[in-house]
Amino acid sequence: MADAQTATQAPNVTRREDYNEPDWRVPEIALDLDLDPAATRVRTTLWVERGGVHDRPLRLDGDGLTALSVKVDGAETMDWHMDGPNLVVPLSGSAHTIETEVEIAPERNTQLQGLYASSGMLCTQCEAEGFRRITFFPDRPDVLSRYKVKLTADKTRFPVLLANGDPIAQGELDGGKHWAEWHDPFLKPSYLFALVAGDLVANRGTFTTMSGREVQLGIWVRAPDLAKTDHALHALKLSMAWDEKVYGREYDLDVFNIVAVDDFNFGAMENKGLNVFNSRYILADPDTATDYDYDAIAAVVAHEYFHNWSGNRVTCRDWFQLSLKEGFTVFRDQSFSADQGSAAVKRIEDVRGLRASQFPEDAGPLAHPVRPDEYIEISNFYTATIYNKGAEVIRMMATILGPEKFRAATDLYFDRFDGTAATCEDFVQCMEQAGGVDLTQFRRWYSQAGTPRVSATLAQEGGRARLSLRQLVPPTPGQPVKEPMVLPLKLKLFGGFTGRPMCDEQLILLKEDAQELLFENLSETPVLSINRGFSAPIVVETNRTAKDLAFLSAHDDDPFARYEAMQQLMLDTLVTSVTNGGTDHAAVIEAVRNTLTDSALDRAFVAEAVLLPSDSFIGDQMAVVEPEAIFRAREALRADLGKALEAEWRAAYEGSLANRFEYSPSAKGARRLKTVSLGYIAASGAADADQLAFDQFSLADNMTDRQGGLTTLVNGASPLREEALEAFYQRYQGNGLVLDKWFQAQALSTREDTAEMVERLVAHRDFTLSNPNRARSLIGAFSVNQRAFHDVSGRGYRFVADQLIALDKLNPQTAAKLIPPLGRWKRFDEARAAKMRAELERIVATPGLSKDMFEQASKSLD
Ligand code: PHE
Ligand code: ZN
């Protein structure tokens, strides 16, 4: 029986409260790698020191390694043993030299953790626990070492040899080989180790730091991709300057290299001085990358660069502290991006992302605190909660402290913990000390999971108004009862008649279960603007009418609040349609008309504001998600908006026809509004809509417009649909990143036959599960297509489960990340829920399942 099988091999749980300091420290390490895809020799020397008074042996983590030789203080020894995958060496003194030798086969490494091959190059990925797949080592982030690395390889296949730190020496060997030596002067944990060997070229640049040191920058790619690296290099220079200006943080090595690789489980990795990137976050030119891609590249380049301080110089004591580096670094990259263009639009995008991925996570079976208490497989905790909710937690502290004190607090944090492995608690203490605030209760943001809900009721009594606030933190797995949180709420009142602000913006801290606020001397009926700028990552329910929301969507002076009012109006309308079949769209139509025709507004903002909430977000508002009814209600509203405002959409479309491609905030905004308008023109059923989309597709001089035309056609039934898909495929055959868009567009199609088409695409000659981007572009995209994935037949569930079982055999980390859509079964009707559960049960019962998948799938059944 499946249960018996999994019970006997139930994987170990690691608990935060079990933390102990390392038994042995490793102040220095020398690595000597003879690189070969089939057989790489790794010779490692560790200088180890006993930590404290104990008589425990040296335990070195290993994963799939066989020790070919072990030496202690220069002499070969037989006095060692294996404990499972780990190497145990008894030692008598307080300091020793340990030498080990292993052989690994990077070309057979399909997990893409440790040393692996990708498109002819060799590269590493060590976070979180990949270093133990390369050599025996105490592979935990609080063991900090100075690294010396020697790389030897065939010179023709691997002319470029890179590692962390600075290049020290290089030379030639007999037999066509060469070598290079790199030293990293900074202490670092093993997860930040990296090497790359390949036939690569660099886009080079320099950056002069604030103290006048010149840093050599290099973006390394295969020769044909060199022309697509200028944007990333530019973003890197902007990031370096920004971190000096905003946080006073200077770069610390003489070189900073970035390498783009095609096969990568995540976005990118911040290895010291040698960032390794998924090529989708480096390569861009107007013909192949969308505006979204350009923005994402700048954000990820910034993110990884910022880790040099928030992550590398100050690292994490243990993996429960992951948000210490990730939440803070996401907050830093979000602020950077906000400074490059429209801060309001950036905030809207970030909140939309939070609601699309983190809110559902917090409301489902995989909910966990920003600082988790336990895990089976740490790779499963690189989540929207750790990253994006973690960033919101930092943002709230920044809001509470204000900019000057927040900067003083981060200065204190970097100074105090430089060169060490720190905790979330250390960070909060710096905020308290430099900020002069007590964050005792605020710390619940680290320990309690779940999205707080606030109800805000404004009641007028003559010239006074009473605002009643109540908060509720819902139960989550393992946390049935919650304490009230500290919620920083920015709010303001507007006169519903004159539209004038009735007070300055206030920041209030809601700390109790319930709190009341009184406003006096009001000359007209007030309208409440609350959680402005999304000052707290919560759900707010108010007693505002459709009229209030329409008013705010046109008059609020906080752009985020304006967007939010429109979204709420749309949501209320859609939820009413789904539940009572209501079709009164007049209020939404008028509000959209006002925004669309307000020439004072930024085009990018308009494009965001007039977009309807997604199918899934509508579903999140309902007790039981009804995918078909949601789809129909949303399409009906889209059609009505399209028809009622057809002239306005056409005007916006025409007005947004940029002449030639330019990457600027205003040109991006125009392109965005253009495709959003195209979507509404198509929804109106206008006779020329398909041709309009096809013309946009074929005449485009950039990928944003081309993709906009394509996705509009892909959702429809025109014969031009096939023609466009075929033309796109022919044009970009051989360009993996663009083919991902081709697969993704079809997987996200709102057509009724999407499930069938996606099943067919798996057999396409360009489809493969072994490339994570490709797997995500089809399987990942399909599973977030609410209508198609939740087809009543259950075929979508079966299909995804089949693919994940197959993917798990190759790449458990990437497979496990795709489990959450199946885990949302509780939100659906009984028939769907039963089918989803059955697929999860089938996954859990699969022989040889990885612990990554076991953890995600079994927790999702609870
Ligand atoms: N630390 C990386 C980042 O967020 C993410 C990552 C995690 C990459 C694990 C690879 C493996 O910047
Ligand atoms: Zn990160």
TrEMBL record:
Catalytic activity: Release of an N-terminal amino acid, Xaa-|-Yaa- from a peptide, amide or arylamide. Xaa is preferably Ala, but may be most amino acids including Pro (slow action). When a terminal hydrophobic residue is followed by a prolyl residue, the two may be released as an intact Xaa-Pro dipeptide
Cofactors required: Zn(2+)
Keywords, in A-Z order: Aminopeptidase, Hydrolase, Metal-binding, Metalloprotease, Protease, Zinc
Lineage, top ranks: Bacteria, Pseudomonadati, Pseudomonadota, Alphaproteobacteria, Sphingomonadales
Domain of life the protein comes from: Bacteria
Domain (Peptidase M1 alanyl aminopeptidase Ig-like fold): residue spans on this chain: 450-542
Domain Peptidase M1 membrane alanine aminopeptidase: 232-445
First-tier enzyme category under EC: hydrolase
Polar residues composition bias: residue spans: 1-12
Family that this chain belongs to: Belongs to the peptidase M1 family.
Domain Peptidase M1 alanyl aminopeptidase C-terminal: 547-861
Aminopeptidase N-like N-terminal domain ranges (all copies): 89-192
EC annotation from Swiss-Prot or TrEMBL: 3.4.11.2
Pfam families for the chain: DUF3458, DUF3458_C, Peptidase_M1, Peptidase_M1_N
Name listed for the protein in its UniProt record: Aminopeptidase N
Cross-referenced NCBIfam families: pepN_proteo (TIGR02414)
